[in-house]
Each structure stands twice: as structure tokens, then as C-alpha cells.
Design brief:
Immunoglobulin-like; binds calcium ion; 34% strand; seven-stranded antiparallel β-sheet; single chain
């Protein structure tokens, strides 16, 4: 319930979604505390608008245990209130051994410099006796400026609150007459909370893109980058602390221009297998993938999820090796796979990483051969003896992975849909700035895949 009103008014919803930090979410305490003196403090703990022109207020009175002439034992505790407006006064001892004889409803309080009520003849709190108690009362009409006196010895020890202080605590706690709906009570209003009645989940952060692979590594192959093309949409589900609870993705094959039957998976380079609670939604039909009980791949040092072990698993078409890469034929449809990865405890976004994480294909059922994006590390299961052979110049000692001598890759990732190449047509014939982009490590023509003037030869690009 807490924090909602301030949250919204001070930040604004759009900014809020983009800039959430743990400190904003967690730090706020709606209480207002003031010092009476002599070791006593008074805190406005709650103010509830009963929606019938009355308010129920709870004050918390605490003594810190200090001792001696400046820390006398409490003799009474009084609260200022306009005569005729207060009722239902009660006291509850929270900690320590405070006692009192009676509640004096005033309004004349004798030596106190204001009218109101008091908890009278108190003992056992102050002068070395730490403790705390609450005073609960009802006010009718409006909220008021109210002083409190923790009378000890000759000292009035007054703390003064304004009506605005009471109003602040009420709104901060969302206990006014028009509370903002928050089904799961996590402080994030239903209108902002993507999972309004689930206190463990709050926000979705979604990324989309396409991955395209060349499958003859370590040989350069025909460079058409349509051997496996996978479109993805990945959502990081975070909680109010901005920690990642789940990773939920859909994967859809948009082209298979290969005779090889390739698999596809992702590694989370900074997540251990046992940090994953469960994985659902994969399609494993060929028997060469072994899983741990949580659904991650077995014998891996990092968390690896195999999405499918064969492109054929989700394809619907007439047959033959090619799917959506030959002009005027060999088309069909594919099913999406929905992968839901749930972590054992929520992880920081930097540990989980950003989609598509470290994706790769497994060539033709051979678990020892993976093909990754440039400079991304292989999983534990590859046979490293292929590194540096044929056209590949991978050198783990320098962090150079899955690139040719000239820096050309075997896998590409773009943040949108890829219009892939016609079968056996090198990608640089369709995308005229591809080579410059790849050889510059992505600094030249980072938008090479867009349909801009001079960027494409559309006759080389497959169309449905
Ligand atoms: Ca909520
Ligand atoms: Ca929620
Ligand atoms: Ca190819
Ligand atoms: Ca191909």
C-alpha cells in the first residue's frame, strides 16, 4: 500500500517505468518522527481517513533508554486536540514495561500549555528504561496542528506536528478516501503493475530481433546467412526491486536454407545452471541433448537452454531441405516456441544480460559444433579442436571467436525483422554495406539492414 501517491506525483509514470531504481522503490518510509527531548520521540505512524469526516491516527512514542537528569522518567504523555473533536483514545505498550493509571480526556490538562487528552501517571519508561507505546485516537472534522508533550520531571518536552504532516502520512500510505488500487500491495499501482495481483512480478522489458546463421563453419560457406533464421521476442520479467524473475521468449524460424538439420540454443554467460529453477517450452526430439532436472542442458558450466534440436520440429511444408529461401517455391509455415525460464532467486539484469543473450546453432545433430555470434564464447560442450581451422580464426587467448581473418562472422543479429537472402546468394550482394559493417566491428553502417537508398539490391533478397 505504501508509497503510491508520492511515487506517481513526483516521478510520472513513463519516466518511472524507464528509470526504476531500487532506492526509489524501497527507501520510502511514510512515517514522520519528531523529537520531544529527554530521549523521547513521537512518530506519526498512520492516519486513516474513515470517509465519514473522521480520521483514525496512531502515534508511536519511543524512549531510547538514556539515563540521568536530562532523561527523566515519563510522568504523563499528552496530545493537543480541539475540544469536542477527539474520541476513542487507547494506548498499547509495544516494548518495555511502561504502565499508566488512566487516560484523561481533558480538555483541560492542568500544567500542559494546550488542550487535549493525556495518558496519565506513567511509570517505567525514561531514565534508563527504554520502551515504546502507541496512542490511537479518532479526530472528527479536519486534521489539526497537534503538539505532543512527553512530560518528564519539570520538562514539557514538546514535539509539534502540523496538519500537513498528518496529511502527508495519510497520502503516502494510500489511506485516504480514494486509495489507488494495488491488488498485490507491492506499492506499484495496478495501472502500472504488469502483474497486478502477483507480488513477485511487476514489469516487462521486451526486446525483439532476428538471428541469422551460416552453417558451414569453420568453412566460410556460401555466405547467404539464411541457413537458419530465427525471429525472437524476449521479455525480462522484473520485480519491484528491478530484479529479473523470469525470461520469457518466443522463437520463430523464418527461413531454413540448408540441408543440415540444425539445433538452436542460448547460453546465459553469467548465470549458473543451478540459478535456474525451471525451463519450459523447448522442442527436443532427436535425442542428442541431455537435460538437467531444471530443463537446462547437462554438463554445462553456465546455464544453457536448447530451444530446438532440429529446425524440422516446428516446420510445416511440402518437404525438401529449403524453407522460405527459394523464390516461387518451397514455402510453408512454422510454429513459434515459447520458452519460459524461471530463476531460483531473482537476478540482477546485468547478470542475466540482454536478449538475445549468447545464441548459437548446433550443426546437424553434432553437439561438438556450435556457431555463435562474433566474439561470443562457446559452451562447455564444443570440441575446441575446430577453432582456428579452415576460414575460422578463433583464438580464445585473445577473445577472438567465430570470425574470419578479415573479421567476417558466421552469425548476425539485428534488432528487427531480417529480409533474408535468396538461397546461395551471398548476403553482401543483397545488403551492399554488409562487408563494411562486419569488418568495422559494427561501427560503419550499423543500420546496414535497413531499406534505405543505396543499401540493398532487392532482387537478391527473398520475398514471400
Ligand atoms: Ca502492485
Ligand atoms: Ca505485481
Ligand atoms: Ca549458407
Ligand atoms: Ca542457405
Amino acid at each position: 500500500m505504501k508509497n503510491i501517491v508520492n511515487f506517481i506525483s513526483s516521478i510520472g509514470l513513463m519516466t518511472l517505468i524507464l528509470t526504476l531504481t531500487p532506492s526509489i522503490i524501497n527507501a520510502q518510509n511514510c512515517d514522520i518522527t519528531k523529537t520531544n527531548g529527554g530521549g523521547f520521540t513521537t512518530t506519526i505512524q498512520s492516519v486513516v481517513d474513515n470517509c465519514n469526516s473522521t480520521y483514525t491516527i496512531v502515534l508511536l512514542v519511543e524512549h531510547n533508554g538514556c539515563q540521568g537528569p536530562t532523561c527523566d522518567e515519563l510522568s504523563h504523555y499528552s496530545v493537543q486536540a480541539t475540544p469536542g473533536t477527539y474520541s476513542n483514545v487507547s494506548v498499547a505498550v509495544i516494548t518495555g514495561g511502561m504502565t499508566y493509571s488512566n487516560i484523561d480526556l481533558g480538555p483541560n490538562l492542568g500544567s500542559d500549555p494546550f488542550s487535549g487528552f493525556k495518558v496519565d501517571n506513567t511509570y517505567g519508561i525514561g531514565d534508563g528504561m527504554a520502551g515504546s507505546f502507541t496512542v490511537t485516537y479518532t479526530l472528527s472534522g479536519n486534521l489539526q496542528n497537534q503538539q505532543t508533550s512527553a512530560k518528564a520531571g519539570q520538562n514539557a518536552q514538546i514535539a509539534s506536528f502540523t496538519s500537513a504532516d498528518f496529511d502527508y502520512v495519510m497520502n503516502c500510505n494510500n489511506t485516504n478516501c480514494n486509495p489507488i488500487a494495488d491488488c498485490d500491495g507491492d506499492g506499484i499501482p495496478d495501472g502500472v503493475d504488469e502483474y497486478p495481483c502477483d507480488p513477485t512480478r511487476t514489469y516487462n522489458i521486451t526486446t525483439v530481433g532476428t538471428l541469422a546463421f551460416e552453417d558451414l563453419w569453420p568453412s566460410k560457406g556460401d555466405f547467404d546467412f539464411n541457413d537458419v533464421v530465427v525471429k525472437y521476442r524476449t521479455t525480462l520479467v522484473t520485480n519491484t526491486q528491478n530484479m529479473v524473475v523470469d525470461v520469457r521468449s518466443s522463437y520463430k524460424i523464418t527461413a531454413v536454407g540448408a540441408s543440415y538439420r540444425n539445433g538452436f540454443g542460448i547460453q546465459f554467460d553469467n548465470v549458473l545452471p543451478n540459478q535456474v529453477a525451471s525451463v519450459t517450452g523447448y522442442s527436443l526430439q532427436k535425442g542428442y541433448i541431455t537435460l538437467n532436472s531444471n530443463g537446462t542442458e547437462a554438463s554445462q558450466s553456465k546455464a544453457v537452454v536448447i530451444v530446438f534440436d532440429d529446425t524440422e520440429n516446428t516446420l510445416h511444408r511440402a518437404g525438401g531441405p529449403f524453407f522460405n529461401t527459394v523464390q516461387n517455391g518451397l514455402v510453408g509455415t512454422t510454429d513459434s516456441l515459447y520458452i519460459d525460464i524461471h530463476f531460483t532467486t531473482p537476478l540482477t539484469p546485468s547478470v542475466v544480460g540482454t536478449a538475445p543473450f549468447n545464441p548459437f546453432i548446433i550443426r546437424n545433430g553434432d553437439r561438438e559444433i556450435e556457431i555463435h555470434l562474433p566474439d561470443r564464447v562457446p559452451t562447455s560442450l564444443v570440441n575446441t579442436s575446430y577453432f582456428g581451422t579452415s576460414n575460422d580464426k578463433t583464438n580464445p587467448s585473445t577473445g577472438y571467436y567465430y570470425k574470419t581473418q578479415n573479421g567476417l562472422p558466421w552469425a548476425i543479429h539485428i534488432p528487427t525483422v531480417l529480409d533474408h537472402m535468396i538461397e546461395k546468394t551471398p548476403i553482401n550482394l543483397g545488403y551492399l554495406h554488409f562487408i563494411e559493417w562486419a569488418q568495422s566491428n559494427g561501427t560503419s553502417y550499423p543500420d546496414w539492414y535497413l531499406n534505405l537508398s543505396g543499401y540493398r539490391d532487392a532482387s537478391k533478397i527473398w520475398t514471400p
